[in-house]
């Protein structure tokens, strides 16, 4: 828990999966924090001052320390508040959690959104490519409750904020069943379990409002 004199502030944006995962971590640790909502694509002067390099949310301000980039922030939170560990202790498992988290953000996200919406090689080719990537996660979750084992951890926060509660909503707008139960039974089981976790439920964007905003973003990307 945060000590009394500590100040923890999070600059975020409601539909940002990167912000959502940081909130999950703070809630899991029971750290009190002040949430400052950005209004993207407009950016506050505060955001530009705190994150002049990337100019993106999330930004965590812990007392006089400023952190950006969600994976870095999650690791910082995990090491600063040691209760309810987020990353595995075992060095190999820790490295693997980081590896798969990068895979989600750097490979699944661009193909699962931009390439799909643009569909330059056709929609079927884009779906096949995304499902090929998702198959790796299906194998990874097989036999486990969560990626983190019995409880949610680093990869659950990264993949959970990104896949079921962000990309899947874009796929729904496009009427695509990207993760059908028959093909991805283990991932569907994981998504159902994740949806029951209190802190996850508290952090995911309200669905109807999210879908409405996603439709607008998709239209903007299509016409760009
Ligand atoms: N790699 C960053 C990505 C953060 C990110 O892309 N944030 C988006 C919101 S979802 C943002 O602030 N975008 C503003 C912009 O690109 O100008 C992280 O893990 O935190």
TrEMBL record:
PROSITE patterns: GST_CTER, GST_NTER. The keyword Acetylation does not apply. Residues 90-217 form the GST C-terminal domain. InterPro entries: Glutathione-S-Trfase_C-like (IPR010987), Glutathione-S-Trfase_C_sf (IPR036282), Glutathione_S-Trfase (IPR040079), Glutathione_S-Trfase_N (IPR004045), GST_C (IPR004046), GST_C_Tau (IPR045074), Omega/Tau-like (IPR045073), Thioredoxin-like_sf (IPR036249). Its EC number is 2.5.1.18. Keywords: Cytoplasm, Detoxification, Transferase. Residues 6-85 form the GST N-terminal domain. It is found in: Cytoplasm, Cytosol. It catalyses: RX + glutathione = an S-substituted glutathione + a halide anion + H(+). Belongs to the GST superfamily. Tau family. This is glutathione transferase. It comes from Camelina sativa.
């Amino acid at each position: 828990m945060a000590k009394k004199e500590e100040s923890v502030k999070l600059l975020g944006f409601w539909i940002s999966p990167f912000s959502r995962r940081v909130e999950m971590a703070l809630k899991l640790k029971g750290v009190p924090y002040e949430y400052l909502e950005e209004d993207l694509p407009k950016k506050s002067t505060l955001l530009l001052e705190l994150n002049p390099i990337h100019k993106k949310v999330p930004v965590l301000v812990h007392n006089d320390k400023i952190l950006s980039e969600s994976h870095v922030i999650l690791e910082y939170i995990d090491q600063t508040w040691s209760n309810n560990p987020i990353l595995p202790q075992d060095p190999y498992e820790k490295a693997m959690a980081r590896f798969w988290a990068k895979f989600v953000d750097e490979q699944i996200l661009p193909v699962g959104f931009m390439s799909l919406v643009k569909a330059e090689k056709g929609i079927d080719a884009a779906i096949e490519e995304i499902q090929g990537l998702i198959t790796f996660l299906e194998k990874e979750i097989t036999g486990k409750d969560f990626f983190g084992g019995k409880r949610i951890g680093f990869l659950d926060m990264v993949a959970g904020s990104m896949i079921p509660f962000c990309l899947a909503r874009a796929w729904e707008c496009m009427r695509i069943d990207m993760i059908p139960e028959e093909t991805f039974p283990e991932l569907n089981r994981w998504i159902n379990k994740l949806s029951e976790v209190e802190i996850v439920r508290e952090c995911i964007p309200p669905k109807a409002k999210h879908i409405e905003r996603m439709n607008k973003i998709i239209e903007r990307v299509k016409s760009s």
